[in-house]
Amino acid sequence: MTLRAMRCCAKLLSHSWAAGKDTDDAVRAGSGHSGQIFSIANMPTVVLMDSSLSMTRPVSVEGSEEFQRKHLAVHGLTMLFEHMATNYRLEFTSLVAFSSLWELLVPFTRDYNTLQEALNNLEDYDKTCLEAALQGVSNVVQQEWGTSCPCQVVLVTDGAMGIGRGSLRHSLQTLKQRTDDKKFPLPFPFPSKLYVMCIANAEEFQASDGLDNLEQLISLNGGEGQIYTMEGPLCLKSVQTMFGKLIDQAYSPLHAVLRCGNLASDVQVFPRPEPVLIDEEVDPIPKTVQTDLEIVGFVEIGDISSPPVISRHLVLPIAVNKEGDEMGTGTADETEEEPSTNQMAGKSPNFCVLLHGSLKVEGMVALVQLGPDWFGMLYSQADSKKKSNLMMSLFELGSEPLPWLGRMSQLGPASDAAENPYGEDDSKSPFPIQPKNKRSYAQNVTVWIKASGLQTDVQKIFRNARKLPEKTQTFYKELNRLRKAALAFGFWELLKSVAELLERECTLLPDSAHPDAAFQLSHASQQLKLASTGDSKYAAFEHNIAPMLTDFSGGGAERM
């Protein structure tokens, strides 16, 4: 399947191949990316480390007389940091320690040496109070990223969640007895996943309700996250296995093959796309992105516009040597003496690099099939003036995710059309596709997309206000139009501000002004103030402000 809006694929690719070396060098085999590469598909991590006294309990490990649970936790986190330094080295990570209080040891950084040093110098404190620590994590993330950036929280603890007031058990038991200013910090106000790494095995939880309490934490976070426990005895091998599962689950990109006809390239997708559920199904089965990503055609950026998407992901090529083994995208520790994997891969043609340059030069996007009735788009997005990245956005599930393009299965090559749908000089476009049934609209709807539109509507009111009472009819018509729009948007402040401006306008009336003008302005101001309070009598959407009836004659005041 290809697109009706598609230009010839050979023309598109050949343009980029001859477009020069600059684009190729900027994206070849994952090299040349700026430090902002992951700001587009960012998912920072907060490591929440338990530093209470219970973490100092000894464990029996061969060859070590004093080995504590804290040392196992440090070993596991070291393994995680080493993995992220190699594969997620441009991702942001923060380290928070907690006991009865919490402390931000390392703010969000990409320097994993700093994180490792702080972890090695971690001190021991007193009892465990997890609620305060979770509130601290919420504050740290919101101060740095706000509430829209998804974040992963890795809680490392021994499962001993304290006793008495301040313990996790006490916090969960008092959930329904709290006031609004003392709410439990879960769910977090930002999209998140909570991973609990327990330096304990399942047998230790059988005699307590610790595991049940931790599972309730995951439930409070919307079910987003998972609990990991150690299998077998508490030893280095067990903790490596546990953190290995976390890495596979949360810190491994999707490895896929990007295809376009006979061209193909092995790629990594960061972060790994999440499974998607269809709400309409009785027994929904999670839909996952398949490992074969098939490009079905190309379309102009102007035609695709700015479509709604589920998520956005970074696409990087995987260098493959002659024997077929993956070489990765290179690390930061490569020396000048030995050729880096990036340099070696840069000498080999790569379809992913070619596609990126093509889309950037031609100003187009590639539509890619992610699975049955599931599509997305590949496009070039700039980090700076010189650097850009190949991105993939996932559309909603369905055969018609973008109504203005129509059904994907009905699109085809532009060359199949009787005449060029874009015109001889590319002066027109076949999109958007008009619906079969023409929709009728009973009245115009007030829309304020830009500040200038709102300013124009307010100015109309005051132009008519200065011509009262001759323009009474028009004045109240514009006033009621603005009032209804403000009520529909919940824009109470606008009503109050316009009311204050009307009061000011009343005080600025010249001596020659008709007496009725002052009455009408004061009346309109009072009615807007009443509406801004939200009172059901005066803030009803159907209610219209009527002119004030006065006894002045000959003033030309109109009656509604």
UniProtKB/TrEMBL annotation:
Residues 324-345, 408-435 are annotated as: Disordered. InterPro entries: INTS14 (IPR039841), IntS14_b-barrel (IPR045814), IntS14_C (IPR046471), VWF_A (IPR002035), vWFA_dom_sf (IPR036465). One of its GO terms (molecular function) is metal ion binding. It is found in: Nucleus. GO terms for cellular component: integrator complex. SUPFAM superfamilies: vWA-like. Signal peptide: none annotated. Pfam families: IntS14_b-barrel, IntS14_C, VWA_2. The keyword Nucleus applies. Its main location: nucleus. Keywords: Magnesium, Metal-binding, Nucleus. GO terms for biological process: snRNA 3'-end processing. Residues 44-246 form the VWFA domain. Belongs to the Integrator subunit 14 family. Component of the Integrator complex, composed of core subunits INTS1, INTS2, INTS3, INTS4, INTS5, INTS6, INTS7, INTS8, INTS9/RC74, INTS10, INTS11/CPSF3L, INTS12, INTS13, INTS14 and INTS15. The core complex associates with protein phosphatase 2A subunits PPP2CA and PPP2R1A, to form the Integrator-PP2A (INTAC) complex. INTS14 is part of the tail subcomplex, composed of INTS10, INTS13, INTS14 and INTS15. This is Integrator complex subunit 14. It comes from Triplophysa rosa.
